[in-house]
Design goal:
The complex is a heterodimer of chains A (275) and B (316). With 275 residues, chain A is an alpha/beta fold. Chain A has ten helices and ten strands. Classes of the chains: A alpha/beta (275), B mainly alpha (316).
């Protein structure tokens, strides 16, 4: 599906005629197919991810939701034998991040990523957050200090770690490590932050902190989150995409989809009949 | 028909059988432990006897005079000065060739190379190279370095021969060390926009330094005891002079003439003494052997410390 309205002009308000228009599109996925060798994992997925909202991807194991997420920052390029088809455009600008000549490294600077298990570097808390900035060429101590503090505040970790910034990140608890990874991902001001089941290794308290953070974050960035946990998708996302066997079955507002799914498979999955 | 009482009897018979079987299994388990312990003590015992034997005949010979004298026809005046200096120079050449090449090759194979038939082929052959008898490396070095490149029977040729010998060990150690780093750490770096080189230089190498250093030291302690390749390329067995000093008192202050100097090494000196008649030369040989063994044990100790130190901050 092609977005009928140029991305820059739309808003989430209702227009004069009272017809709801689409919110501004941040990432426009069109006819995306993905292959691991000869194995097709994604089939013709088209999806418009709205800006400054949380979009959740749900679906049973092996449905391709994580694969889709990892297409967006070209993580699949790290491993041989993978192939993309279709396009993924990022706005403003509308550059196709799968296009020929597109450097995956530039893509990854616009898409931050938080992984399933906290994976801080075995370095200090400070160096973990500063690493992305250093990669982008920032090396003045004062600038780094400022951005590291900002990122740590935005990930609600600053008060817990400000007195021990130069201690090892591995001494933090699991939940703190994951918030550190969030700080690391947002320190460079990416356009979109991708979360790949960020709370699956965490306890309920740590999970709720991360969820609060994600909801808070959408004022500044666009969030796409893959989750196994339907309640989580319901709690934090504005829109939900349901995937099954590599296809996008349904995509819409989360409330509507959870109360009144359009497709029978969605209903079966949401009501717990399979998955 | 079986009564309730019969059922109880059957059940208790079953229990007794299970118990008997379990106690048999336990006793096999215990016996394996005992036999294993016996073998371990036996093996270590042989090693200890070897070391004690060497110490008994050699320890009294090790003193400053022994360390600071050239070999001599008179056993009591002979020493190992030219031998240990030669060994150190050889190790400098070996390490400075084998470490950069081996680490770079390990990084390439593990982090850059595509996984296909060619890399499988290369991988198998590296493992094979590690098993090639050392004398073959000596023959290769004789043909290539000594005659073809005209390095002569020099420290350089010897060091290069040993470098070839231990190169596969360094490559394998580097790969093993890199492999212990979880994929999640690589992905974390790449997701922030790091290039492969940045991921290697900022993360993978620092996190695997302990493993690589351990491998390098083990490779060096293999090289330090080698004599076959050095004899093949023509290391001398009786040298009463030292190679030219690497540091000069006048400009340009450094000299690489020592690279082209003839040399001897500890195992060769030892070999020379062992093949001589006479009790005194035998105890010289034992002393040289003891000294070599101490160096090797010291290097292995350093390897263990290095690994502990480097991994102090790293847990996955």
């Amino acid at each position: 599906m092609v977005n009928p309205i140029p991305a820059a002009q739309v808003s989430s308000e209702k227009d004069i005629a009272g017809v709801e228009v689409k919110p501004e599109v941040k990432v426009e996925i069109q006819n995306l197919s993905f292959f691991y060798g000869k194995n097709q994992v994604l089939r013709n997925v088209s999806l418009d991810v709205p800006a400054y909202q949380v979009t959740a991807m749900i679906g049973p194991s092996g449905c391709g939701k994580t694969t889709l997420l990892r297409c967006l920052n070209r993580m699949h390029d790290l491993y041989p034998g993978n192939r993309y088809e279709g396009s993924v455009r990022i706005y403003p600008g509308g550059t196709d991040i799968l296009g020929p000549g597109m450097d995956p490294i530039r893509v990854r600077m616009r898409f931050g990523m938080v992984f399933q298990k906290p994976n801080p570097f075995p370095k200090s808390i400070y160096e973990n957050v500063a690493y992305g900035l250093r990669l982008q060429g920032m090396n003045k101590r004062r600038d780094l200090d400022e951005r590291v503090e900002k990122a740590l505040r935005e990930s609600a970790l600053w008060d817990e770690v400000k007195s021990r910034l130069h201690q090892l990140a591995h001494n933090l608890s699991g939940g703190q490590q994951q918030r550190l990874c969030i700080a690391r991902a947002i320190a460079t001001d990416p356009d979109v932050v991708l979360f790949d089941e960020p709370t699956s290794a965490l306890d309920p308290i740590a999970t709720s902190k991360i969820e609060e953070l994600i909801v808070e974050m959408k004022r500044r960035v666009t969030v796409i989150i893959v989750t196994h946990n339907l309640q989580q998708a319901g709690r934090i996302s504005d829109r939900t995409a349901f995937m099954y066997l590599g296809e996008l079955i349904e995509f819409g507002e989360t409330n509507r989809m959870f109360t009144n799914p359009a497709k029978p498979q969605t209903e079966d999955y949401i009501s717990g009949r399979f998955g | 028909m079986l009564s309730v009482g019969d059922f109880i009897v059957l059940a208790s018979q079953k229990l007794r059988k299970q118990e008997a079987r379990a106690s048999r299994r336990r006793s096999i388990d215990r016996w394996f432990g005992r036999i294993g312990l016996l073998f371990t003590i036996g093996t270590l015992g042989v090693l200890a006897i070897l070391l004690l034997n060497l110490a008994a005949s050699g320890l009294t010979r090790i003193d400053w005079q022994f360390l600071l004298s050239f070999p001599s026809r008179r056993a009591a005046e002979a020493g190992i000065l030219s031998a240990w200096v030669g060994t150190i120079l050889l190790m400098i050449v070996t390490a400075s060739v084998a470490v950069p090449l081996g680490v770079a090759a390990g990084i390439y194979l593990e982090e850059y190379a595509a996984k296909n038939k060619w890399t499988d082929f290369i991988e198998i052959n590296i493992a094979n190279l590690a098993g090639v008898p050392s004398i073959l490396y000596g023959l290769m070095a004789l043909g290539l370095f000594v005659y073809q490149f005209r390095f002569g029977q020099s420290v350089l040729a010897g060091g290069l021969a040993l470098a070839c010998l231990v190169l596969p060990i360094v490559i394998v150690a580097t790969r093993e060390a890199l492999r212990t780093i979880p994929a999640a750490i690589r992905e974390a770096a790449f997701a922030l926009g790091a290039t492969r080189w940045q991921a290697v230089w900022h993360h993978l190498l620092p996190y695997s330094t302990g493993g690589i250093a351990t491998g390098v030291i083990l490779a060096m302690s293999r090289a330090i005891g080698e004599s076959a390749p050095l004899i093949t390329i023509g290391a001398l067995t009786f040298i009463a002079f030292l190679p030219p000093a690497p540091i000069l008192a006048h400009a340009p202050f450094v000299s690489f003439d020592w690279l082209f100097s003839p040399f001897t090494a500890l195992p060769i000196q030892m070999f020379n003494w062992v093949s001589r008649p006479g009790e005194e030369f035998q105890s010289n040989a034992a002393a040289a052997g003891l000294f070599l063994m101490l160096i090797t044990l010291g290097m292995n100790g350093v390897a263990i410390l290095l690994r502990k130190h480097a991994q102090r901050n790293i847990k996955w």
